[in-house]
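Incident log, structure service

09:12 report received: a user says their structure output differs between two submissions of the same chain.
09:20 pulled the input from the user's history:
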Amino acid sequence: MSSFSTCVKAAAMAVAFGLMCSAASAQSVSVNAEQAMAALAAMRQYATKDGSNPSYAVVDRDGKIVLLMAGNGASPHNLGLAERKAYTANMFKMPTIEWRDKSAPGQPEASERDMPGVVPLGGGFPIMVGGEVIGAVGASGTRGGQEGDTACARAGADAAAALVKRLQASN
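09:34 re-ran on a clean worker, output below:
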């Protein structure tokens, strides 16, 4: 085999390997600390308008905590609820207010409520990028109850997703 042929094969293998690595890294996008902080800023902005000081959580695509923040003067249970709401939104890949209704007693999915760490309350929202869930946010303690917590979490999820999309567009 000629050295030219060997070089061409080696180059082809390197390109193929690079494409495989690119595909793998594109599939493994997960919310990071910078994106979690963007989500937090958006949720705090929502809460300021709402006149509340809720607790917040951001989890990555594996459901692991990236950020937790207790609101000043928030009830002690709100931090745990925010975390569980984010985990639930990530686990079921939908806003928790929708999952709450979908898994209500008597529904086919009702047994999902027995899973550890989930909570059937509004206030969790998945962070979606390119049709994939890369993490989720949770809020607990807004003045608007579960609907307010959901709107707050959505603001955070949208901000984190927008940051990811801007970063992807610049690469």
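09:41 both user submissions now match this output. Likely a transient worker issue. Closing.
09:42 reviewer note: Helices lie at 3-27, 33-50, 76-92, 96-102, 145-170. Residues 11 and 134 are 33 Å apart (CA to CA).
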